[in-house]
Amino acid sequence: MAPIPISDIPTLTDLYSSQEIQPSNDTLPNATSKYNTQISLIRTDITTLAIDAIVNAANDSLLGGGGVDGAIHRAAGPNLLRDCRELDGCDTGDAKITDAYRLPCKKVIHAVGPIYGSASARRAGGHGKLLASCYTRSLDLAAQGGCKSIAFSALSTGVYGYPSGEAAETAIAAVKGWLEEDEGRAGKMERVVFCSFLEKDERAYGRWIPKFFPPASTENAREEGEAAQEKTSEAVPLSTTAEGNSEVPVLPDVPTKEPSEDLQPDGQPEAKKAKRDEGTGTNDKL
Fold first, then answer.
1. Bias regions of kind Basic and acidic residues — which residues (predicted)?
2. Is the pLDDT of residue 60 over 90?
3. Of 4, 113, 187, 262, which has the fewest CB atoms closer than 10 Å, so is most exposed?
């Protein structure tokens, strides 16, 4: 497959315009469209992306494995393995960076995601904390290395057992938080790409991204509605009783729709998760 340049990777603005992703009916309170031209969603082989950095779903040895990890090592060639041997492994929740060699990208960032529900993850503060750290540490390394674009694989959603919906929510929240933490730094990161290889991961991101990053028109409509509601509340804060006393507060309408459940992964191998013991599976694919 020919390398895919950054100009051919659609942004959220492009995807909303083409209706390839749809707005959500339940955007989060802190949702924003501010970064929609900086964020992309694509389903393809991450080894084909001709951008500054791609993030590998590595194991703690950094010596390669199956899945995305193995594909990246095969495409990069033996020099990548040589560099990884010199890094002396990597802790779960952390990341390390190398050159990309034969890959069309410039750098490979090796992030070690957690095994879902493992005892070691619980001791370290929870698998959610560790997975989020993979994304923020990778962004830190990319920024420090002068990378202006970065693509993430769906970390920990393979045999490490992380449900795709939960992983996507954590990843998107971590990236959004990193961008909002330092606007100057965020302005230098021209593109953050969520790159899925499996359909289950693509669907998960397609569901969660609109909750965090709605189209600009949806965000404006929500803000205008909130402003109008606040203005009305200030003008008539309480309804009046028959005796003329302002005692009964004006309450919002009762919700008529049940909240949707989190997306569950398709065909998630529960048996594999049950067999994963703490400290095992170092060379398994992620």
1. 220-233, 269-286
2. yes
3. 187
CA distance 55 to 283: 18
Higher-pLDDT residue of 130 and 269 is 130
- HEC-encoded secondary structure of 15-36: HHHCCCCCCCCCCCCCCCCCCC
Q: Residue 232 above 80 pLDDT?
A: no
Query: Are residues 19 and 172 in contact, defined by beta-carbon separation less than 8 angstroms?
Result: no
Tokens 């962004």 found at: 139
Domains annotated for the chain, with CATH where assigned, are 4-23+31-217+262-275 (3.40.220.10)
| Amino acid (1-letter code) at residue 74 | R
64 Rama class: left (phi>0) / alpha (psi -120 to 50) / beta: left
pLDDT tens string 151-210: 999 999 988 999 999 999 999 999 999 999 999 999 999 999 999 999 999 999 999 999
Q: What are phi and psi of 48, to 5 degrees?
A: -95, -5
Looking up tokens 């100057």 gives 184
Burial of 218 (0-12, 13-18, 19+ CB in 10 A): middle
Which of 3, 9, 74 lies closest to 37, judged by CA?
A: 9
